[in-house]
Protein 1
Amino acid sequence: MRTLHSDRLVLEPVDSRNARELWRVLGAPDLRRYQDIPRLRAEEFERQVRSRPRLLQARVTGRFEWLVRAGEPIESVGWVSLRINERAPDIGEIGYSLIEAARGLGYATEALGAVVEEAFEASELGELQACCVPENTPSRAVLHRTGFREVRLLRGGAMIRGRHVDVLLYAVARGEWHRRRQREAVRSQRS
Ligand SMILES: CC(C)(COP(=O)(O)OP(=O)(O)OC[C@H]1O[C@@H](n2cnc3c(N)ncnc32)[C@H](O)[C@@H]1OP(=O)(O)O)[C@@H](O)C(=O)NCCC(=O)NCCS
């Protein structure tokens, strides 16, 4: 996996060297309200990270994750994940979160854009998807700003704190993403 750079962020691939750093971020308050984050011991989390694939490339499956780092001095403020399930190897599922202190600055949109770009460039995925509960308006806004479109409501589509909840499915296809990037490039040439 590659380290990704955007205007204000460094997205560091999660591997055995920084797994504990991500584990600390996962323990931050107010991350579990709208999503299921398993509470694992640090050693177990590190073991899971060690078993993940190292390279994001064509036809690979598994979980990939980037630690989002920002600020001066630079610190870890969140993560973006990409999961490719072997039952649907053409689709990547995206997840993301920021610690409370790093919200409202545009970091999530910036980080997600960088990971979407990398996912389409490094792999042969045809589509990226993301799910969020309808009441998570900040998350829906991030997806909308990044270029995901709302597909449909999945009844009981996720499990949060042991309960089935409805989630909205969002998606962006490879072609849609490239057309968007081209439009952005034309716009920035004109300005
Ligand atoms: C979902 C989540 C990542 C969204 O974070 P966020 O900070 O609202 O999203 P962004 O980082 O893209 O920031 C966008 C906001 O920053 C503002 N902003 C300020 N400076 C900005 C800049 N330089 N560039 C862009 N946006 C900027 C935008 O106007 C926007 O504010 P608004 O929501 O009032 O319109 C965050 O709420 C979170 O981690 N929640 C808990 C976990 C979670 O729900 N994860 C998703 C599960 S589906």
Protein 2
Amino acid sequence: MYDIIGDIHGHADKLEELLLELGYKEDDGVYQHPERTLISVGDLIDRGPYQKRSVDIIRKMCEHGHAKCIMGNHEFNAIAWATTDTNGHYLREHSDKNRKQHDAFLLEAEQDKQWYEETIDWFKTLPIYLELDNLRIVHACWHTPSLDILSKYATEGVLHNDAWISATTEGHELFEAIEVLCKGWEIALPEGFVFHDKDNNPRTNIRTKWWQEDDKSYQALAIGVKDKESLPNSDIPGSAMPGYDNQKPLFIGHYWMKGEPCLQSSRIACVDWSVAAGGKMVAYRLNSSSLNNDAFVAV
Ligand SMILES: [Mn+2]
């Protein structure tokens, strides 16, 4: 059976603590469990203090068949940062803002060019999603139309080498599909509504708790909006949301959840509980097809 773990963001110390807590042991440099397989929802890198170690632990586990790993938006961005088009332009602009987000990783990676190159090559082999017999994994949002678009440019979720320019070109269908799958579901506010983000920029789009089944108002579904009063109190039309077919349990990361780990719906569990912001490194121990709150393990 599977243990699904949340975003790591360079916190290899917490990752190792969690692996030991789950009963994995390091043997010949590879963490392993006699009966279980680890699945990472991506975002191994950026922010935290142990970038190389975080990548190496998961990569070795994958290479020896003890883990699976999908791509988070941070691995996607790392590839785009390191890759050029035919004119020699980087697929992700080397701006101050982008560098700052990637600094912790670059500081370690640039000390060891061979490791850096091999790591980017490995990141390129990570699928954007996983669909197994009894579960699904995606970094931020399961959305069938976006998965259908992805399938034109990927094999079993792994982007083809010649798709990277499309994947990083704003407005391209592949770029938009990956935005949804790896960064989540955004919607436009009704005409006339504006809120201000943490840097006080006016915004007319909100990120959403797309999984939520009960309260569906703009105020309840918005993520990261401090001044909820600035949003409409009415419901978001159902057609504006992706929904979820509930056919299989779904595991996501990405959302920097706060508090005690818990399910997001009867069939959806987020395993990112903000280890990079003083929160917890979390796993969901999957032993049955019905999800429950007791299956979270946190350190
Ligand atoms: Mn993320």
Protein 3
Amino acid sequence: MSKQRIIETNEGIQGELTIEIFDRFARIMRDKGWNNVENFYKAGITKGNVLEIGPGPGYIGLEWLKQSTNSKLTGCEISCDMIKMAEKNAKEYGFEARTNYIEGNAMQMPLQDETFDAAFSNGSLHEWEDPIRVFNEIYRVLKPGGLYCITDMRRDVNPVIKWSIYLSTKPKEIRPGFLTSLNASYTVTEIRNLLNKSELKNASASKEFFGLCISGKK
Ligand SMILES: C[S@@+](CC[C@H](N)C(=O)[O-])C[C@H]1O[C@@H](n2cnc3c(N)ncnc32)[C@H](O)[C@@H]1O
């Protein structure tokens, strides 16, 4: 049995200092190639008009775009400070014309029905106040046949892996936040129960080495 979930705030990451520290952390992860982009490809998300939920500083989607020429990415992000960082990073990649970051809560996205060919998200699920509402929103904004893939950490990760990641996480200032996020994350069983109550009830949810991966087709 894994420990009970301890929820995080639902305000996303705010404030320039935290944003700057998170950006440094996400950049290090990007440089190590730890980005889950491979999972999005495995789920069949290879091109098109794509939505990213909770892009943070943007590296995940920007790395995906690097391999998907001709594709466009819209990021729906709750924190306006993160949006500024993502826009700065998109410029560094030379992808301003292929990216559009909008401020919005994933539980009620300011986006039209049936707009996107696919949707993905990494490391944001554990922060969503009501994941069922977000799953339903993903269903709403996807075109028929649209693909989705959501990756995140998993609370019941092996403790040896948990602590070795904790100790190797840089910059050091991010470590307390890593534990808070891990404690707020779900197990695959919990996620399957939530998916079953949503429009994404046909999704598959799998246990990964460190995290979990949800994928499917509308
Ligand atoms: C831990 S960060 C992960 C950022 C990025 N996806 C990555 O993997 O590096 C989670 C991001 O999700 C955003 N977020 C949290 N709740 C959200 C919500 N309800 N709607 C939109 N974005 C949200 C946060 O502001 C933050 O930028």
